[in-house]
UniProtKB/TrEMBL annotation:
Lineage: Eukaryota, Viridiplantae, Streptophyta, Embryophyta, Tracheophyta
PROSITE patterns the record matches: PYRIDINE_REDOX_1
Reactions it catalyzes: N(6)-[(R)-dihydrolipoyl]-L-lysyl-[protein] + NAD(+) = N(6)-[(R)-lipoyl]-L-lysyl-[protein] + NADH + H(+)
Residue ranges constituting the Pyridine nucleotide-disulphide oxidoreductase dimerisation domain according to the UniProt record: 351-460
Positions contributing to FAD binding: 54, 118, 147-149, 317, 323-326
Gene3D superfamilies per the UniProt record, alphabetical: 3.30.390.30, FAD/NAD(P)-binding domain
Listed Pfam families: Pyr_redox_2, Pyr_redox_dim
Statement: the UniProt record of this protein carries the keyword Electron transport: no
Disulfide bonds: 45-50
Keyword Disulfide bond among UniProt keywords: yes
Protein name, per record: Dihydrolipoyl dehydrogenase
Amino acid sequence: SSGSEDNDVVVIGGGPGGYVAAIKAAQLGLKTTCIEKRGALGGTCLNVGCIPSKALLHSSHMYHEAKHSFQSHGVKFSNLEVDLPAMLGQKDRAVSNLTRGIEGLFKKNKVNYVKGTGKLLSPSQVSVDTLEGGNTLVNGKHIIIATGSDVKSLPGIPIDEKKIVSSTGALCLSEVPKKLIVIGAGYIGLEMGSVWGRLGAEVTVVEFAPDIVPTMDGEVRKQFQRTLEKQKMKFMLKTKVTGVDASDSGVRLTVEPAAGGEQTMLEADVVLVSAGRVPYTTGLGLEDLGVKMDKIGRIEVNEKFETNVKGVYAIGDVVPGPMLAHKAEEDGVACVEFIAGKEGHVDYDTVPGVVYTHPEVASVGKTEEQVKALGVDYRVGKFPYMANSRAKAIDDADGLVKILAEKETDKILGVHIMGANAGELIHEAVIALQYGASSEDIARTCHAHPTLSEAVKEAAMATYDKPIHM
Ligand code: FAD
């Protein structure tokens, strides 16, 4: 059945924002339809984002470890090789298993799934051009726009997904490029650069800004950049790409200093354009309905995710806020809780961010620069992975934990971790921040030995007092 009967909720877009909203709505007893044009659920995240990139990061890390670290652990073998089609195949299987898993969750929760492209005809009616080739109308009392984001293209740099690729093309290169140039030193560029660098590509990252990952704590960022440089990633910061020329033999880029100056020529087999993402609202009919968007095309919503048009809501990458899958999910749940007449809440101050390179970099709360700008008196507690017994035992000791706490109250303001498993360790800090904990609260909590998490405890000790192992 498509949605000719009335739905309580119609969700346009089946990404982490949309599919989670749809399942939650159904769980709250609302009759729900989700419309997705991709032919598979999970959105950018599952199909061409978080999941396939983490699959390739893991596979390439295993190869890199085998090549560079196994010997020192006494694991020897000959004939180490990369079988790229097999590596890409494992990634594709992971993706298709997970997308089918969401279809299963839709069935289990009785979410009606319509495959096709939706367009709003009114605040309560969506026209869908179905993938099968027809058109159907889906009605609903509440319409949630969860159409996500798309790759930001750069003027004069046409993406062909072969020589000049977006992150999507970078997830399925048919061979390891000898030279890869990454335009943009955000987390996506650094993650994909790491994948191909580990597999043998010479990677150069060109960035207009003076720093890599601008949202990161400055001190952690500096260490992170040094770590990536040790892994042979090259950086050209404050550098502007002024031209590109792709031919069968490769790509030539002309670059110049961001402030202006002499041009130089760079050559590469593949160029990855990862200069950010833009909200995706093409063809939704929002202009005709008068849905308000800001200057950069994000849909404006209030704290209940309502747009200026009654009955129309928006969540995830298509609204302001960090463009992250877990933030989209939180939006989705809170949005349908409001629709169901309950309270919903998202705390945007405690959304963690993780860069899944090796080591990982994870953070929550404020950076030291932000704390300074607020004019709050603060203390810093740091603990290096080098002094953590588990990190030493496994010979993976590049990194640190840094905690910022308010001087007067010891309340934690921000936590920044670079190191193995940082993306898992950060959640202790997320909970601490969510509960308004002090650094002493963490320090006086028993942590299992020997774990990397002890580095968080010791950094907490260092924040208001002294660590033991330093
Ligand atoms: P999307 O996931 O973009 O989903 C929107 C869906 O709507 C799409 O499937 C689209 O086909 C569909 N759609 C659009 N228009 C219509 C229409 N008119 N009708 C029907 N369907 C429509 N985030 C993290 O948190 N962690 C990570 O590790 C991470 N890694 C990433 C790696 C890469 C390479 C990329 C590109 C992104 C990554 N992200 C990561 C970001 C993450 O993918 C997004 O923040 C997240 O997918 C946003 O979810 P969403 O539901 O708002 O939108």
